[in-house]
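Marked as duplicate of an earlier ticket. Keeping the data here for the record.
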Amino acid sequence: MKTTSREDLKEKIDRGDDFVLLEVLSEASYNRAHLPGAIRFQDRGLIPDLMPDKTTEVVAYCSNSH
């Protein structure tokens, strides 16, 4: 796993790169605002349904710096 900067993530979104963007925040936070194309991560069991295949790049973000 590696860390991606906000700037790099913005570039990926702007370029239209193919990846899954998971938002690991509360439902209230997601409803207030979220990044374009973000999917709210709420249940680890849903991961297989979100990933087209095992080579899919996944970017997860949260409000925490860890």
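See parent ticket for discussion. Helices lie at 6-15, 27-32, 47-50.
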